[in-house]
Amino acid sequence: MKTLDLNKIMCGDCLDIMKELPDNCVDLIVTSPPYADNRKNTYGGIPPDKYVEWFLPISAEILRILKNTGTFILNIKEKVVDGERSTYVLELILEMRKQGWFWTEEFIWHKKNCFPGKWSNRFRDSWERCLQFNKSKNFAMYQDAVKVPIGSWAQSRLKNLSETDLVRDETKNNSGFGKKIANWMNKDTVYPTNVLYLATECSNKNHSAAFPEELPSWFIKLFTKENDLVLDPFSGSGTTAVAAKKLGRNYIGIDIVREYCDLSESNLENTEQYQYSLIKAVE
What we know:
Layout (H helix, E strand, L loop, with lengths): L7 E4 L2 H5 L7 E6 L8 H4 L4 H18 E11 L3 E2 L2 E2 L2 H12 L2 E10 L15 E8 L13 E2 L3 H5 L11 E2 L7 E2 L9 E2 L4 E4 L15 H10 L5 E4 L6 H8 L3 E6 L2 H25 L1
Parallel strand pairs: 1-14, 2-3, 2-13, 6-12, 13-14
Antiparallel strand pairs: 3-7, 4-5, 6-7, 8-11, 9-10
Helix pairs in contact: 3-4, 6-7, 7-8
């Protein structure tokens, strides 16, 4: 078992490399593995009916190396097979729960610049899943780090409050949930929803399946603090590592394609040069 070699891009099979990492050493894992049967020119593709079998050994290693307070974010999407949506993602979730994972939350990445499209029985997807898994129900989370501006709705909604708005209004279906509208008064920021509105970035990343830097950045801010360790076992062009570096976190990136490992190193070097130029500009 190797000791941790931080802030590196490791080229090789992520399953083999993760087996060399210590138990309970990673604070956050954010990754987007090859989707079922997609990106064949990039990674070879995994058929939908083989995907769960292929991924479970990987998720088992992730379960071992993730800290008890850590979080695993899996960016993945379904595939249409013979005119019907495949269930491979749902099957994977169920099998990972059997493996010992808590499926804590599901975030939706809405691709706000998605091109329209039409097939005979469906329209183009403009969203992808970002599944949150944890080893424990007590995990690190820094919600204040991702607060957003309250929005223009507050100007009119909070102008004239009713008697009900001044107290906690319980839901009518006895669910135990409720809200007090007056709690939003005099606030500039509020907590976000679980829908992330981010544009895609591929043409400028030299990688066919790159996600925008804002995506891992958001999760890094939400689930880690400075100097925590962030891992991406399918690092591609190194977007997660770059985001972690910019935010003052340690990182490890893994990819099986040498070309992408070299690209990641180049992107990280450019990040370091950019940060240095900012420091010099301030001085």
